[in-house]
Amino acid sequence: MSEKEKMTSKNGSKNGYGTIDDVEIQLVERNNEEERPCGSEKTTYFNDGKRKIDFVIVYEEQSNAEDSETKSDKQVLDESKVQKKYRRWRTTFIENLKDLGGQHPSLAEKGLELEEEISIVDKKELHFIKIHCPWPVLSYYAEDLSFRAPLQAHQRPTINWSDRVLSTLNLPNIMKEDVPNKPLDFNTAAFKLSKLKTYLGSEDTDTFFSNRERQRITWEILVSVVFGKSTECGIERLLDCGAFVAAYPLHDGPYEMPVNNEEGEKKVLNMRQILYEYWGRWGKWYKYQPMDHIRQYFGEKIGIYFAWLGFYTAWLIPASVVGILVFFYGVGSMFWDVPAKEICESGDTFKMCPLCDNGCGYWNMSSVCFYQKLAYLFDHPGTVFYAVFMSFWAVTFLEYWKRKNVSLAHHWDCLGYEEEDERPRPEYAALAPAKEKNPITGVMEPHFPPRDRIPRLLSGIAVIVIMMVLVIIFIVAVILYRIIIAVPIVKNPVLRPRAQTIASMTAAVVNLIIIMALGKVYELLAHKLTQWEMHRTQTEFEDHFIYKVFIFQFVNFYSSIIYVGFFKGKFVGYPGHYTTFFGLRNEECQNGGCLIELAQQLGIIMIGKQMINNAQELIVPKIKGFIQKWRRGSTKKKGEIIERPQWEEDFDLIESEGLFAEYLEMVLQFGFITIFVAAFPLAPVFALLNNWIEIRLDASKFVSETRRPIAERCEDIGVWFTILEALAQLAVISNAFLIAFTSTFLPKLLYKYHYRWDLKGYVNFSLAIAPPDSGYNETCRYQAFRDPNGKETTFYWNLLAVRLGFIILFEHVVFGICRLIDILVPDVPESLEIKIKRERYLAKQALADINIKPENAEENA
Question: Is the pLDDT of residue 467 over 70?
Fold first, then answer.
């Protein structure tokens, strides 16, 4: 009987999605093709060419005579003892891998199958232990880990909203591309070995589980097998101490496309080649990401990261379009701005007071004509609209991501996934001072008393506060630098109009360098602190580490911008009564106000950070990879062809560093484009350009430059979503205060509708006359709403009331509409709820049928 006939007789020809015969044939063909070793991919199998290599662990043996001449007898003896201990641990570990009965009695005399290869480089022996997980072990762990198995296959439609819009308009979709070997979609149910015949593909147990699932199961075994005492377990601890030097799943083969590859040969490409050709290359920057292929190869955790990054990048497109329109509105109306015209045409009318106390002369307001016009680009009525728009954009983006996330998690069978009993971290197990019975499993395991953790947590908080104070000290130093550097520039009549710009931009560059340096130092410190706090599970460790680093980086990146936006120029005083800072006169907002300085500061820090990070991601992996290959002696000369097995090729790649740095970069960027967008409408444009580059850099890095990461399961982006929600709420408050107190929008609005219906005379109205006791020998003007005696005018107090009222109104309206959006946009689409219920019904029916009529099923087969 053919495979098609077997499947049809077992599951029927209809399943609620239409005929599935063709899909099932495709499933069989795909599995057969995937498991057929050919060319250089044969080294992803054992030497028999049949058993798949699911994992590789590597240890290094060194010659005893090596470097003995340069070491003392005691050093040689100590090293010999350590190596002897490592050999004992490795031997025990490998024996326990071969027989898992000690871990699970039901697996007695069953275990992983191992095969060893030795590579000698520079008198060092590298032992590659190839691991194959046989069916009895796979099936046991798949049931224990609640894997889901396919019941019925169907093609999932790949149409998204942009494709649907373009189809409606009868426009070609250049972003769409047919990627070969698309993974199938299935109706699934929890895997039960007793109901194996219910599932698709159960006739061939060698291909029943995907490579991703096989690697996940193998890793689960590797991290739990004992190598010493009962608490001494797991490959992670052996890697930390150096008994093993590497543990990694293999890539599916080379990532380069075969030479002279024909269209008909695409079906024989391995998944790594497909991902590189249709995703990782720079030429694919405008194409949809093949999300199902990414998840199939790297697992759900990395798949969800790229799905979120792609979704976020797509949502930046409307934000960028509106930002560009707002910017060009400013460009178009700049030449008709009445206050700027009055300043440019004022000549010697407005003689301004000196900008410093020693040696600075009087200056004319007309000398900053150009900068007043430039400031209008970032401070006009359109920026107020854009701040409101971006507040709604941020909340709506997060709401629709929740819907997208749920759909994706359901499609990838990880909806509701949660580690029921996550194992202790290796460092925790090694350093915990006591043992205690796990209330869930009943197994004795390492334990660290919660009371002992409290002082460590408080110490960690104290360190964070100290680091924040250090950041503030550097901010103060940058402020002093800006004040000091501005004084000699102001004294030069030629450079005076550019004094604030030169001082602000050079200070922003210095600040960026300090920020990047402090960020690297603190990440290392935060990692050590979080380790010292002794968190039991990896999830707890990562959550505490993320919060520590984000809180610090928030202060680190945003504090200087917050100072310019909310504090600079607010506590200057007035002529004769200026406030001082370390003996120096406080900074004023010149050349168009603080909003343009805020835009400069934001632009330099945000764009500079992106450029530095992208350069690091492009260059550093290549340098690390070259050094690693050079040390191994595996670099090849130009034109030289070296055929090496896949396990050696992958060993030369750099180790994957996870997704923490990627998420942190994007979340900080999200803060830049939402919290301070009122000052810089082009921020989303630069974020969009960066993200297009970021996707390609990350894709290329994962596919071609790093070892294959372990396929981890998850259903969402974790605590990062909580941080994004907090930033979205903070953005509303921040933009309200920026418009109210930093922008000139409300003063102009109040002048326009309270005194006259246009802005004629506003410049003169906004400039106060220096009081008689100022100490100046000539009459001069300064920017403030004060009377000739230096007292605040009635307009000042009316304006303050308007500003406070605007903040209250802005926040209530925006938060109210955002709450309405939250209510109107359900987290789970109605169509998905129906689909989930339908699939549960089909799974229940299929599993019930196999229980009720097993004999009939055998006869039909």
Answer: yes
